Each structure stands twice: as structure tokens, then as C-alpha cells.
Amino acid sequence: MRSYILLLILLVSQTGIANNAYADAIDQILSGSTKADGAKLDKPIELEHSKQNDLQIKKRLTQIYSELDGLKELQVSVSNGVVTLKGNVDSKAAEQKALDFSRNIQGVIEVQNQLTLTHDVTKRLNTLQVTLKNSIEQLITETPIFLLALVVFCLFWAVGSWLSKQQSLFRKIAVNYFIADLLGKFVHLVFTLLGIVLALSLLDATALLGTILGAAGILGLAISFAVRDTVENFIASLLLSIRNPFEVNDAVDIEGFQGSVVRLTSRATILMSFDGNHVRIPNSTVFKAVITNYTRHPNRRFEFDLGIGYAENIGYAQELILHVLTDMQGILAEPKPQVIVNEIGNSNIVLRIYAWINQTEYDFLKVRSETIKKAKECLDQAQISVPNPTFDVNLTKAPVLYREPPATPPLTKESHGSITDVTADDSLKEQIILDNLEHADENLLVSDGQKEI
Q1: pLDDT: is 389 or 413 the higher one?
Q2: In CATH, which of 3.40.630.30, 3.30.43.10, 3.30.70.100, 3.90.550.10 is domain 299-389?
Q3: Nearest CA-CA partner of 254 in 284, 286, 280
């Protein structure tokens, strides 16, 4: 049955006979209730009611509507506390306002809504014209206050910007340039927020600031979860720049990655491996890693093993090697070098040699290599045997025929070279310096910062 009624209304609307009342009828049909349905009485109904009360209600409502634009032409009738409103209104808001006023009058039991929503273009234009006129007048009136608020905000922003650039001031209280730059940005942010608060106070819109800060807090929390790794790396870079466990050109070992430090950025630590490759390690990993810094202390010890035969004089071999270590260029006298008996092997007695060098003046690998060579030559000259490991081989199959390699000229003693230059090799340092020249603004490490011991 409902579908037939709906179809009938649609057909009538196509012929041009329908008006706004049909729209209300459709709403009532679809919802299954009228506008009056579902009304709740929040006050008791009096047992006695007089016409005098109806006249007072009508008079009061008429006085109220006469003072409001858009409600002046409404017709009010009251019978036994039931108010009936008739007339034309320009908008839903005006209609709701008229109903609310009627329901709030004392003694009103029910309000019958017979108002008609009109779409008079002339009235709409007049209303729009009045609204625009009032808005323009209000804007003109509030322009001086708005300009004053803008001047206050710009003044605080400019002062904060100027203070943030005074790095010499922040450098006195900060441990390095990175912290000083962060302090400058924080001061700029504080002054900017203070300017916004004062400007909104002048505009009497401080409530807007709370809304903005609340939204910014929620947004910041969501972003922090989304970029958790980035935030973690940034905080780690901040702490690393304060602790300064290494500096540029330091040879380090971080989680098994070895190389010289190139720079520390806000996201990662850059190493240059000893074969010239860049190694990028996240700062969060570096901060939690075990770091071995080979360069922080200038003195560094190296060691190597050398075997002699069972029949040789161990003490004599130790004295010969110590004599070589004492005369070797680059080996420090203090701490003293040592030659100890490390173990008795399967085919020899293993001597372990310890020596210290100043790696700021001499190359670690060159000194170690030259020391091994001269120690071996010293034992050879003293005719102390350095035996090879001995193995027993049992052949159960026919041996493979061995073919002699082509003859080559033997190396004589005079043909052997000798490394005379054991000074530090700066080729890798030069590459790091050139690399940092291209990325000077990204490096958070400073040579004059407080070093972690």
C-alpha cells in the first residue's frame, strides 16, 4: 500500500501540482511517523487550563517572533495549551528556531507545525545581502585588531629567528654545534608559539589554540609511530654527538664492520672500509653496538707467532728477536716488546712476539710486516731452524705423477727488497677529507668536542 501512495505522489509532482507539502508527506511515509510523533513531555500537564493562559502564550510568542527577522509574519494560535504555527519561513534553521521558542514557553503542551518552507529568490537575495553587509562591516571594524595581532606575531617570529642564528651564544652552553643548532631551533619555536598565543588573545580566539594544539598532538603521535625508526636514529645521533665515541678518520670496528669514520649524520654513521667502500650503519645500531676504536689511543700493540725447532736454544732465540725489536724503526721502547713461549706445537716450539707502535707516526701494518720479516731473517742468520709441520701420509692408491714446474731464476739474497718507509699511510685519510668537503653540513662530529673515554 505504501508503494502505491509513493508512486501517486511522484506522478503528481511530475505534473507540476506538487509543492513543499508533498516533500513533507514523503518524509512521513518513509519514516512511518509524523513530525509530532515521538515527542516527549518533560513537564507535567496541569489539570486546569483557562483561555486566559492561551491568550498569554499567544501574546508572548507574538512578541518574540516580532523581534526576529524571518519570523515576524508567523501566525500563532493557541487552544488548551496546544500551539499552532502557520506562515512561511525562509530556511530550516528559522523553522527550528520558531518551534524551539514555542516549546520553551511555560504552559505549552504541544506545538503543531504548519509552517511552510519557501524558496523565494528575492528574500534569499535580501538575506544574503544583509549577511554580506554585516560581515563586511564587522571585517572593517576588526581590521585594526587583526593587523595588530599580525604585527605581534611577526615581531616574535623575527626575534626568535634572530636569536636562533646566534650560534656563538648557544655554543657556550652546548657541547657541540649540533646541540647548539637544536637549541637555536627550539628557541625559535618557543618565540613563534608565544607570538601565536598573543595574537589569538588579541583576536579573542584562544579557544582555537587549544583545538590546534590538540590536533597537533594527535597528529604528532600518529607520525611518531609511523616514523619510529627515523625518530630513534635521530635521538641516537643526538646522544652520539654528545658522547663523541669517535671522530673523523678514527679506525673503528662496529658490529663487525671495520673502517675509518667519515661522518656522523642525523640518520646514520658513515664508514669508509679499508678497501675504499662506504658503509652506512643506522645510528640506533651504532648507539647500542660494541665499538672498538683503534685510533682513540695512539699506542697500539701487534703480535705474531714464530716457531723454532725442538733442539734450538729457546732463550738464545728470544734474545735475538728482542734485539731485532729494539732496533726496529717504529717500535716503542715503552711499553717494552716481549717474546714469550706460547706453546709446544706438534713440530715446533711457538714463540709469540708482542710489540707496541705509535700509530699516529707509523703505519701499523707496515711495521708489523717488517718486524716479521726481520725476525725471520735474524733466526736464519743464526742458523736457528724454523721447521715446517710434519705429516705422515699413507697412500692406498697409485700416486699421481708429479710434473715439475718450468724452471725459473732463483731469488738471491741480493734480489730481496726491504721496506724502509714505515710511516703512516694517509691515502685513506685524504679520501675521507675530500668526501667530507662535499658533505660538510651533514657531519655532526667535531674535533674539539668532549670525547668519551
Answers
A1: 389
A2: 3.30.70.100
A3: 286
